[in-house]
Amino acid sequence: MRIRNLLSLFTVFLLSFIIAVSCTPSPQTSTSNNSTAIQLGFSAWPGWFPWQVAQEQKLFAANKVNVDLKWFDGYLDSINALRAGQLNANTQTLNDTISSVAAGSDQVIVLVNDNSTGNDKIIVREGINSIADLKGKKVAAEEGTVDHFLLLLGLKKAGLTQADIQFQPLETGAAAAAFVAGQVDAVGVFAPFTTRALSRPGSKELFSSKDFPGAIPDHLVVTRQLINERPQDVQSLVNTWFATLDFMKANPEKAYEIMAKRAGVSVAEYKDYDAGTKIFSLQENLQAFSPGKDMKSLSYAAGEISKFLVETGLIKQAPNLNQIFDDRFVKAYAAKQKS
User: Fold this and answer.
1) 150 within 8 A of 122, measured Cβ to Cβ
2) What 3-state class would DSSP assign to 3?
3) In the predicted model, is pLDDT for residue 19 greater than 70?
4) Which CDD domains does UniProt cross-reference here (predicted)?
5) Which helix (H) or strand (E) holds 23?
6) 303 & 223 share domain
7) Terminal-residue alpha carbon distance, the chain
8) Who is most buried in 4, 161, 186, 334, counting CB within 10 A?
9) With contact defined as beta carbons under 8 Å apart, do 270 and 263 qualify?
10) Beta strand 38-43 with 67-72: parallel, antiparallel or unpaired?
11) Are residues 159 and 251 in the same domain?
C-alpha cells in the first residue's frame, strides 16, 4: 500500500512537472551556434597574455563574440584539450600544431601572435659552457613541445642528437623546479619559467630562440569545424586580437599590470620579456602568410619544421600542410582598415 501511494504521488508530480514545463515561455537565450561560447585556451607565454587583457577590458564583447577564455597551467594540456575537442581554439606554436595535424587533428592557423626571439631558452648549470658539454648530461624539457624542439635544434647544430644526452621529459614548470633543485644539469623552458630557472646560483643561458630566427612562431589555432560553422566568430576573434594590441599601445601600463598578474611576476619582470617576444603587427601577419623562401614565410617554415620533426622522430609522417593556414580573416581585417 505504501509503495502504491508513493507511485501515485510520483505520477501526480510528473504530470504537474510536464504541464509546468510546457506552459513555461521559451527563454530568450538561443541554443544556436552564435550564442554558444567559443572555448579558447591559452597558457603561460608572453605572446598569449594579451588575451587576458582582451577578457578584462571586455574586448571580446566589443567585437561581438562570446568567448569562454580558459587558462591552462600546463601548455601541453591545452594542446591535448584542442585535440580532444574540448576547445574550439587554442594558442599554439607552429611545430606543435604540425604535430597535432600529423596525429589526425584538423586544425587551422588563422593568426600569428608573435615570434619567439629569446624567450625560449636552454639554461645550464655552472660548468657547462658549450652545447658539446651537454653530452651525457641530464637535460629536462616538456616532451614534444617547443623547448624540446629548440633543444633538438641546438643539439643538431653541434652534431649531437637526443641519444647523446640523458633526456628527462617533464612538464615545463616541473622541469624548471627540477633544475633549480639541482636534479638536472640543464633545462629547456619558456618565459616566465625562464626567470625561475635562472634563480639557480651559477646558472646561465646556453642558447635561445634568438639563435634560431623564425623557428618558433606562435599562433591562434582553431578547429576547421569552427571555421566551417561559425566563420564570423573566427573573424571576430581575429578582430579582437588587433583591438587588444591597439588597447595595449594606448594603455601600456594597464596592459602590463594585467599581463604580469596573469604571469605571476612583477611588472618589471614582465617588461624584461618584451625583448624576447616579437608581437606581430597586421602588416607582419600579412607578410607571414605570404609565400616565401625563408623562415619569415609560414608555408616555408612549416615545410622545414615538418621535415625536422620527422627526422628527429617527433612525428612519424609529415602531414599535408596545404590546408593548415587560412589568411582570409587577417586579410578581411586589413581590408576593413583601409575602407
Assistant:
1) yes
2) helix
3) no
4) PBP2_SsuA_like_6
5) helix 2-23
6) yes
7) 79
8) 186
9) yes
10) parallel
11) no
What is d(CA 284, CA 242) in angstroms, rounded to the nearest whole number? 12
Over the stretch 183-236, which tens digit does the pLDDT of each residue have? 999 999 999 999 999 999 999 999 999 999 888 999 999 999 999 999 999 999
Let me know whether 111 and 226 are in one domain.
yes
Per-residue model confidence (pLDDT) at position 221: 98
Domain match, 181 and 47 both? no
Count structural domains, the chain.
2
Alpha helix stretches (DSSP H) within 208-276: 224-229, 231-250, 252-263, 267-272
Q: What is the rounded distance in angstroms from the CA atom of residue 264 to the CA atom of residue 197?
A: 15
User: 29 falls in which pLDDT band (50, 70, 90)?
Assistant: very low
* 283 in the same domain as 308: yes
Residue 262: inside a domain: yes
Q: Is 57 among the domain residues?
A: yes
Domain coverage including residue 50: 37-116+214-338
Is pLDDT of 248 > 70? yes
User: Do residues 174 and 236 both lie within one domain?
Assistant: no
- Provide the strand spans (E) within the chain: 38-43, 67-72, 89-93, 107-116, 120-124, 138-141, 166-169, 186-190, 204-208, 217-223, 277-279
CA neighbours closer than 13 Å in the CB half-sphere of residue 252: 5
Q: Is residue 128 situated within a structural domain?
A: yes
Neighbours of 173 (CB within 10 A): 16
pLDDT at 327: 98
Residue 305, classed as helix, strand or coil, is helix
- In this predicted structure, what is the pLDDT of residue 32? 34
